[in-house]
Amino acid sequence: xxxxxxxxxxxxxxxxPPAEDTFLLTDAVEADAAELVETRxxxxxxxEVGCGSGxxxxxxxxxxxxxxxxxxxxxRNPAAAASAYATARANGVNVDTIVTxxxxxxxxxxxxRVDVLLFNPPCxxx
Length: 126
Known about the structure:
4 helices, alpha/beta, four-stranded parallel β-sheet
């Protein structure tokens, strides 16, 4: 699978931490990355809706670092956006973060330009 990252998040701030589904998604991106570049060219813009701790978007930023991919992580929780930003920085990659409800702030301006769209809703069992 994909190499693992350092994660920065405040456990008290209701930020979704990396879990099994997180690693499944990053492993899937890693498995399909070469084919994506080969068949469609290097992606230029990746958006993750609900970025939580930032593990997925930082993984994608690291995987495509050689291709100048612009990565944006969105979350409605300001603590999650801050965690995603910190996780990216801790792993030496750039990720812009936006506090927004799902996709409101992004898709009006760049919907037709998003090459990779990620959404891994938290699985919360009660």
